[in-house]
Design a protein that fits this description.
The protein is 0% helix and 65% strand. The chain has 115 residues and is mainly beta. The chain is globular and about 40 Å long.
């Protein structure tokens, strides 16, 4: 398995509580498995804060692979008032987790690509 970090235009708002809003680090990793499908896994690093809500968008500008599906199946965020969805080249999402989450490499969602 090969991992590649992609450069994506990304904006996000992550809330730790109602009056406090900040940004944390979000990374996208391209995963290619020979003989199988390719995917982009999107991860959150809370940078030492407990996060219970995340909202953002990604521009997949100039993206050459065909997106087959977007999965939240293995996400740490069980609540998705706005599941990750693609309109044109803009992917938008809003998710939440009761009691919050703290850590790095927290899987948000996976973008599955045509092999």
């Amino acid at each position: 398995m090969k991992n590649y970090i992609l450069k994506l235009t990304l904006t996000s708002i992550i809330a730790v509580s109602a009056p406090s809003i900040f940004s944390a680090q979000i990374t996208a990793k391209y995963v290619s498995i020979e003989g199988a499908s390719n995917s982009i896994e999107v991860y959150l690093d809370t940078e030492g804060e407990t996060v219970n809500t995340i909202e953002g968008s990604m521009l997949l500008d100039g993206f050459s692979s065909e997106i087959v599906s977007i999965s939240t199946r293995e996400s740490k965020f069980p609540l998705w008032p706005n599941k990750p969805s693609l309109v044109g080249s803009k992917l938008s999402f809003t998710g939440g987790i009761p009691k919050g989450v703290l850590g790095n490499d927290i899987l948000l969602f996976t973008i599955n690509l045509r092999a």
